[in-house]
Please model this.
Amino acid sequence: MSASVSSTVSSPAAAPEEGNSLWRDAWLRLRKNRLAVFGGAALAFVALACFVGPFLSPYGYEEQNLDLGASAPSAAHWLGTDTLGRDLLVRLLYGGRVSLGVGLAATFVALTIGVVYGAVAGYSGGKRDAFMMRAVDIMYSLPFTIFVILLMVFFGRNIILLFVAIGAVEWLTMARIVRGQVMSVKRMEFIEAARSLGFGRRRIIFRHILPNILGPIIVYTTLTIPGVMLLEAFLSFLGLGVQPPMSSWGVLIKDGAEKMEEFPWLLIFPGTVFSLTLFSLNFLGDGLRDALDVRASKD
Amino acid sequence: MLRFFASRLLQSLLALIIIITATFFMLRFVPGGPFTSEKAVTPEILRNLEAHYGLDQPLWKQYFDYLGSLAQGDFGPSFKYPNRTVNEILADKLPVSLELGFLSLLVALLIGLPLGILAAVRRNTWVDYVASSFGMVGISIPTFVVGPLLVLALAIHLGWFNASGWYSPIDRVLPCLVLGIAYAAPISRLTRGGMLEVLSQDFIRTARAKGASELRVVLRHSLKGGLLPVVSFLGPAIAGILTGSFVIETIFQIPGIGREFVNSAFNRDYTLVLGTVILYAVLIMALNLAADVVQAWMNPKVRLEA
Amino acid sequence: MTRRFLFLALATALLVGGCKPRDTATPTAGSTGAGAGSRVLHLGNGTEPQDLDPQIVTGVPENKIVNALFEGLVAYGPNGQGTIPAAAASWSISEDGLIYTFNLQPNGRWSNGEPVTAADFVGSYRRILNPKLASEYANKLYPVVGAREFHEGKLQDFSKTGFKALDARTLQITLKRPTSFLIESLKHYAWFPVHLPTVEKFGGLERKGSAWTKPGNLIGNGPYILTEWAMQQRVIVDQSPTYWDRAALRTDRIVFYPTENIETEERMFRTGQLHKTNELPLDKTDVYRREQPESLRIDPLLGIYFFRINLTRPPLNDKRIRRALALAINREVIVEKVTRQNQKPAYNACPPMESFTSPVRLTGDLAEARRLLAEAGYPDGKGLRPIELLYNTSQNHKKIAEALQQMWRQNLGVDISLVNQEWKVYLDSQDTLSYDLSRAGWIADYVDPNTFFDLWRTGDGNNDTGFSNAEYDRLLEEALGTSDQAARRAIYARMDAILMDELPIIPLYFYTRTYAANPRLQAPPNLVETPNYKFIYLRD
Model:
């Protein structure tokens, strides 16, 4: 049964060419998936709005109008203003730059470390796996707040630290998931076959195993992004991350949550944009998963 | 098998010692100490305080003293709450968080698993869309929004519940629901992902081709493999959920241990930080072990390696 | 099997969720507001009390409970001000203002029935001054002869201090010099007596935080006794049967709730779980003003919100720039548009109180501010490096900092960068002078200007600005030894003038305490948040 699988995924001789057509096929399939296309388009729209929108706005993100204070959406301020009379729309757009940037970049960091680490541990097994996984246990257990404060003491406050701090926690569960998947796949026949053909470990892991466990990786990645964006809000509590008057989606939602009764728009708009972005990401992720599904591709 | 567990125990003990050591020394390099306060104490009083708690000793001696008392099961006194020991605080508050965590976990699994499985089996139908939407909404709306919203609606406007507290059984409903939904969302997404992975595999096609009923296909053939990623996720997630949630416990005024994880660090309550860290470390290692065992059981291809 | 069990569990949970709890001892929705003549108070109390030992604790939440369980020599009067007898029935002060003689209540009893004696007070003072106990407020007793020496270990013989039990009911306290705020400071819990045999029994006099403060163990001399203390849930106190003035109490039981999250606290108030909150979220204040003004209370509070300036770091070591910054703030706008809880704009370093209202006022206009900045070499802020404004993370501090940032930029062209830090890191930064400008607050421990001026003494642990002025230090000492009130006020005015000239701090506003309370709740405002529970009750 697995002979056909292995030939599609990774017939050794044809791998390079097949790899290209694999990606092309995936792209074609993705384009046919309406939800995924919608998700991708929505995401692109949000990103574009965040990066271009502020230039079109008559207001600055820090521009206060204390006489106005918090005001409901109006013609002058489409999404209303916050308690210092700042335009919510422009703050939301600027905040999107931060959140999308941090969310995607930090998730990418976590994804890369987690996948490589988990795959190596899971594939190697034995002592190396035990060592690597106990290291993960240790990382899980260290007090995060203290860790972040210490980072700031030694390195000052800078943006790279933000990624280090977020990356340090977010890759752990990814590594465990990938390891579990790799362990379940690595004894399958087509992997044994690849091994018997004398392929190196790296090639087997990245060419043969990873494509078969992409599903959970993509799903968990889309789960990580909102976590990262909210973690950023916690880090800004510790003084790492965006500095006021600049804001981010996480911080806007946190602030808005405290005022949800008095000034509901301060929660509703950031919350909606945040949710819609994540919805789009998930649709795109599901579509990607389907498109890259090596087994389904035979149908 | 025995060798596996013995080796794992040994590894974990070693890891625990590393965790304790790292935490102990990290704490001492962080600015501010347990007696740093807005109204500064005089240098004499600070010296007295440090002497009272043995903080005037050389650091290495404090470290070995701490390990010594730890070996006897004594976590030391709390700095923030002088008339309680860390042992008392853990014993007092852990059961509350365990109860909160267990009930929430129940909610999470009861909602998350069925939704995920349904979504996978009825992929790309309205069932899938509804289930997936629930998952995404649950992921993208944080607990600090859902919690107050439910309180406003059900406690303040309808008067069904107290706004906060942990006194009578009814007080459990809202916090467990909020925390449960927060975990149900990722569980449902991961379940769907894992199930899809399995459902498209050849042996499932074979089973279907042989005319096995859909229910049988799902329960017999795919559940085990499909839940693998969920199990990997649940290891750390259960450790997290059982040790309480800072946000939920704060919003609902629940006297659990979750708040202490965050607050003890802010208070620089050295001993309490270490106590909570040890507790969490033991749980996470035990649950990751459990996850490994369950995975091996679910998939015979996975071997437990010592 | 398992599935069935899970289903049953869920069904049970739903059923339980559907009916009201029958446990009437616990507060349930609507239960507290009910029934006239209900003599139970439910009060939001801020954070979880650290301990209830008056010689150990340091915070306001602890203060509120300790005042129910213990009683000092004197207390605040019915309107939250003035002085009335408490554990002392009467007292006299010698001509030279050095010797205070207190006659204790003839019926004063501990909650176990034993009489409260002068020896109990002397023994308690000996305990708090014992360096091994490491009490953080031991220095409150320093005005007394020998107290400081004993506490610093320079004096071993406690009988050589100024604390004397003349007989069972007469306590004499001898001061080093006339300290006119002594009676005020006696209302601070550092001066409260503890029941030494009980303390002794549970771990000894030198041990901090022994079990003596737990329910069942705690013996106090206050109007209430400790019934329950469930950590992070509630503290319950009930009327003490042995209290000498029990007839004056109009509340049978008080339940204190640790309410760390002020949004949660406000919701508890609305479901009727609380008669009084500890605070009110800023944005809720306007809602209460509009919709239920009868539940909104804004009490004066003896405290000041200000900014410390690091005088050791350029460019703020230049007085002209400090003055420019201080003048370029529109405090009325901050108070009316940003903080919105009836705070008073502050133009000097000491909030007004009955005994002293400073005549000093920081004056000058924006034109002067700009001129000063130009004189200092930075016309319109050009060439000035960005100045860091440090604050500890909090919604309100952030909001104020953002408003000031904008004001300084618009009014002076000065670039301010905001830096927030977690509480203890922030305190450390202030302490080690690693900041430019730092948000700060100070709430008085007792009602006297000394508590505000003492801060800026050279080398004081709370100075944290690098400010050092010989004349100022001299005046501070002089004021302590002056018993003539008018002369003392004049000295404090001169000190205030020095501060507003040198500007080691930029005052912003004087605090208020804003909270929600049941309209029937009688609770006289107190400037330092020290309650006298005889005057706190629900009106019928």
